[in-house]
Specification:
Order of helices and strands: HHHHHHHHH
Number of domains: 1
Number of strands: 0
CATH superfamily: Uncharacterized conserved protein DUF2267
CATH class: Mainly Alpha
Distance between the termini: 44 Å
Shape: globular
Helix content: over 70%
Strand content: under 5%
Largest sheet: none
Number of helices: 9
Length: about 140
């Protein structure tokens, strides 16, 4: 089977555009920073096998971003409360922290937006496992 870079690029752009639309922004760089920060925070919260199963449903370009700087020896990170989760997402990308995540409610809205997009593009079973890997207080941010 031939590797078609253009098709993979299109799949990645479709997902990024969905995130941008959910965030109500035309700034694709901002959407990309936010998507990356939230994806990598979710990744770090998951046990290695779950992180790999989750990544399997991402377009190949987003898989690379998802696994960038991944250290399987340091996961899953233990985060039990919402504020700690918000701070963890903020710290995943310094540029996003300074430009996109100045207020906690911006991070909460970004987490919710990315999760909403993932719900439309991934299997329900996979996202249920992701939710179950998160403490109840973090899950509640998705419903706030």
């Amino acid at each position: 089977m031939a590797f078609n870079f253009e098709d993979n690029k299109k799949d990645a752009i479709v997902l990024l555009q969905a995130v941008a639309q959910e965030l109500d922004t035309d700034d694709m760089n901002k959407a990309g920073r936010i998507f990356r920060a939230v994806l990598q925070a979710i990744r770090d919260r998951l046990p290695v096998n779950e992180a790999i199963h989750f990544a399997a449903q991402l377009p190949i370009i987003w898989k690379g971003i998802y696994f960038d700087q991944y250290d399987p020896d340091k996961v899953p990170v233990t985060i039990r409360d919402a504020q700690e989760w918000i701070n963890y997402i903020r710290n995943k990308n310094a540029f996003a922290a300074n430009n996109d995540f100045q207020q906690d409610d911006e991070i909460t809205a970004s987490f919710r937006a990315v999760f909403n997009v993932l719900q439309r593009h991934m299997s329900d079973g996979q996202l249920q496992q992701v939710k179950q890997a998160m403490h109840q207080e973090i899950q509640e941010l998705l419903n706030a």
